[in-house]
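hey can u check if this looks right to u? its 311 residues, i copy pasted from the old doc so theres a chance i mangled smth
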Amino acid sequence: MLSVGIDIGGTKIAGGVVDDDGRIVEQARVTTPVDPTALADAVADMARDLASRHDVAAIGVAAAGFIDATRSIMIHAPNIDWRNVPLRAEFERRIGRAVTLENDANAAGWGEYRFGAGAGSSNMVMLTLGTGVGGAVITDGELLLGGNGTAGELGHLRYERGGHACGCGQRGCLEQYASGRALQREARAIAATDGIGQGLTDAQQPDGTIPGEAMAALILADDPGALEAVHRVATALGEACGQFQAVLDPDLFVIGGGVADLGEALLIPARVAYEQSLPGYSGRQVARFAIATLGNDAGLIGVADLARIRG
């Protein structure tokens, strides 16, 4: 059975026709329009175009933002002017058939759970470390939505009281300490100091950023400043996972997003911080950690599968 999945990103809309084993049989991408009406039209055009060449049973759309418990209303989208918009109905009107709507982080987490690093798990937490931190929770094989539909906002756990200001309006959220933005901030701070920061200083661009490939090269070379920057971010990640363990008790943490490209350089210190942060008794069972495997396709694969399952 084939289904269409479309993942609306900040710069591009990615879509694909996906079979029930999670394989993409056709794929499409277009630039994300700034205007919300043009964006909805672009999504509908892509969905109709993909469906026209395949026997498609369902269509799913993933978007960043708070979606209500009925999976119908986009309550608030952070990067698009959607406020209390009946988004599912808008897509259905344009496409001419039923549409499944889901939060993009939930869709990516579901994709990893079904066909990626989470395969074989039944209780999984996914954290996507990009510009911010996205989250998805699978409990007893079900995607956790919560009473209002907005569960899984793990990046907005209060990590440090009175800490760095967050775009959500609070201070000290985890995404200010365990994201790509946090890694850049820590690297710049270390570069500004004497001693271990020289390698980072040499790799800085004129705007102060350090390209991901340069950071990876420094880590491979055991540069002390780069390793310290990663250690700080990994420690925040691991400590937060210890708190998630106390509440959700997953058997697996899947780490995705651009920061996850650091691989074991990130996971090793994260595991240490996680185990040191676990509440309760010594010798308790611990969760596994794994790097996500589906990359940028996780969202479209996940929402296509959710559309098929939800009918």
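The chain is about 40% helix and 20% strand.
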